[in-house]
Amino acid sequence: MVAETKLYDALGISPTSTQDEIKKGYRKSALKWHPDKNKDNPNASEKFKEVSQAYEILSDPEKRKVYDQYGLEFLLRGGPPPQQPSGPGMGGMPSSFGGTGGMPGMGGIPGGRGFHFSSSGGNGGFNFSNPEDIFSSFFKQGGASMGDDDDIFAAFGSGARTSGGSRNSRFRDLNGGMKQRAPTPEVTIVDRPLPVTLEQLFKGAKKKMNIKRKTFDEATGKRKMEEKMLEIDVKPGYKAGTKIKFKGFGDQEEGGTQDLHFIITEKEHPTFIREGDDLRAVVEIDLLGALTGWKRTITTIDGKQVQVSAAGPTQPGHMIRYPELGMPKSKKPGERGDMIVEVKVKFPASLSSAQKTQLKEIL
Predict the structure, then answer these.
(1) Which of 74, 80, 254, 272 would staple 70 via disulfide (CB 3.0–4.6 Å)?
(2) In the structure, what pLDDT confidence band is assigned to residue 217 with cuts at 50, 70 and 90?
(3) CB 78 within 8 A of CB 99
(4) Dihedral of the alpha carbons of 118, 123, 124, 125, in degrees to the nearest 10
(5) DSSP string, 226-287
């Protein structure tokens, strides 16, 4: 029979629990109540302190023995409370817990006179360690491997490997003062390219993307890989560099969950080069065509056949503009850019003397 069960209750275990069960109870409770996973819960910080410091006592066989026999108040004071004078029944107590001391107000665990972790013992009494130090030390010493992978720190970021005073919350120190921890890093953004054809950017498209991300299972305290199918809405007229954002669809990390940004990249087109909302096509003609006239058929981005011609002479670099045959303007529904046909003249690599003479006579 133990004097009280407050500390066991804090870890969700029984007074007959083994050391392994105590570790598992602490691990589950600490991960559940860690302030960085409960930013919207003002009570999480106090709960986290309760489970961390309950573990600090119960994981030490000597302190656990004293607690089981005489209760938490005796352990914190280093001796019996003033209204309970020492008697013969106190024999056998370790000398490190001798003496008496003041006892601040109690509270924290439901039922009876709970305990509050901003307390400190009196002369010779027990002083709790910083909850973050307990948490960090536990995982560094192998607590992460108890039924989980070694990537457990990713659930909290690098701060889970450091002591208290380095993370983005406040903990009451042993003397009742407040310690301000450094700001938590902002949630990162993951950029991924989204290759899209020019036709898809013209018409619009629904792209499906299967992603894998790391998540944290609060029920089991384990990290796991999760697959998710995203449907990406590519609207008509989107340009290369356009970002399509999915908030909270990346890996879970310190501060929250990563955001995913898909950045549109245009696949190379066999005919057109995009220039803003315009589409430019290059037509290559020979010197004879440039001088005497030429004709070509171009298929527009929406599949129409357009006859392109000039009677000549046509200068190299000459451009012909066809309004409203380019890309749709995403910010101006119903409007389109232009299709531009640029003429490139291919000159002969060489001319014979007779050809040169003829050209001189003609020109």
Answers:
(1) 74
(2) confident
(3) yes
(4) -30
(5) EEEEEEEEE-TT--TT-EEEETT-S-EETTEE-EEEEEEEEPP-SSEEEETTEEEEEEEEEH
Residue 65 host element (H or E): helix 61-70
* Residue that the structure tokens 């003249």 belong to: 345
Radius of gyration, alpha carbons of the chain: 37
Q: What pLDDT, on a 0 to 100 scale, did the predictor assign at position 162?
A: 35
- Give the start-end residues of each E strand in the chain: 170-172, 178-180, 189-196, 205-217, 222-234, 243-246, 252-253, 256-257, 259-266, 272-275, 278-286, 294-299, 305-310, 319-322, 339-346
Contact 106, 116 (CB under 8 A): yes
Q: What is the pLDDT of residues 290-315, one digit of tens each?
A: 999 999 999 999 999 999 999 989 99
Unique residue bearing structure tokens 């909850």: 131
In whole angstroms, how far apart are CA 220 and each of 21, 83, 146, 243? Answer: 15, 44, 11, 36
As a whole number of angstroms, the distance between CA 184 and CA 187 comes to: 9
* pLDDT tens per residue, range 65-92: 888 988 888 877 765 544 544 444 443 3
Torsion angles phi and psi, residue 328, rounded to 5: -65, 145
**Length of the chain counted residue by residue:** 363
Q: What is the pLDDT of residue 265?
A: 94
The β-bridge partners of 283 are: 343
H or E element in which residue 28 lies: helix 19-33
Look at 153 and 183; give whichever has higher pLDDT. 183
Name the β-bridge partners of 233.
Answer: 206
pLDDT at 165: 37
pTM over 0.85? The answer is no
Of 117, 125, 123, the residue nearest 70 (C-alpha): 125
